[in-house]
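Researcher: We're reviewing a set of sequences before deciding which ones to prioritize for further study. For each one, I'd like a predicted 3D structure that I can look through quickly. This is Large ribosomal subunit protein bL25. If possible, include the structure in C-alpha cell form so it fits the rest of the review sheet.
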Amino acid sequence: MKSISIKGSERESVGKVATKAVRNAGMVPCVIYGGSQPVHFQAEAKAFKSLVYTPNAHTVAIDLGGKKFDAILQDIQFHPVSDAILHIDFFQLSDDKEIIMEVPVKVTGTSPGVLLGGVLNLNQRRLKVKALPKNLPDFVEANISELQMGNKLYVTKLATNNFKLMHPDNTVVCQVKISRAAMKAAQEAAKAEKTAAKGKKK
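Model: Here's the predicted structure for Large ribosomal subunit protein bL25, in C-alpha cell form for your review sheet.
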C-alpha cells in the first residue's frame, strides 16, 4: 500500500486552551495510539489534504523531529459548519500484527449484461480488509467479466492475496440491474413473438 509522509511536532500540553491555540495557528491536533503510550502531536492542516480528501487508502509515515511512526488513519473529526479538520486519531502499525482498514473497490473487466443494456450498481465502494501492514492492498479488485443481466458479484468471488475480507459471505459488491430501456425492449420482443405465433396459427 502507498504511504503518505507527514511532518509534525510533539505536543507537550494537550489541554483545551493549548488545543485551541494549535487550531488558531492553522495546525491540526493529532494523537497516535497503539504503542506503549499515546503520542500527541500537531501538523499543518494542508499536510493532510492528500490523506483525507481522497477515495484512495494510504498508510502514513509520521515524522516528529526524528521520531518516526508508521500508522493508519483511525478517526477524524470535522467542524460541523466549516468542515475544517478538528482532530485526527492514528493507529500505530507493527510489522508482526494484522490490522483492519477500509480500502476502495476497483471494478475491472466488461460485463456482458451491461453490454446488453443493463446498469451496473456498485453496492460496496469500500471494503474492510485484514492483513499484516506489508500485505495491505491499495484496492480490492472486482472483476465483472462474467456478470450477466441480473447477476450479483459476492465478496466470496473476489481475489484475496495475503489479506482477508471482513464481510459476511452474502455481501453483494456489485450487480447488473435490468434498465428500463432493456426491460421495455424485452417486453416488446416478447409481444412481437406472441404476435408472430398467432399469425402462424392462422
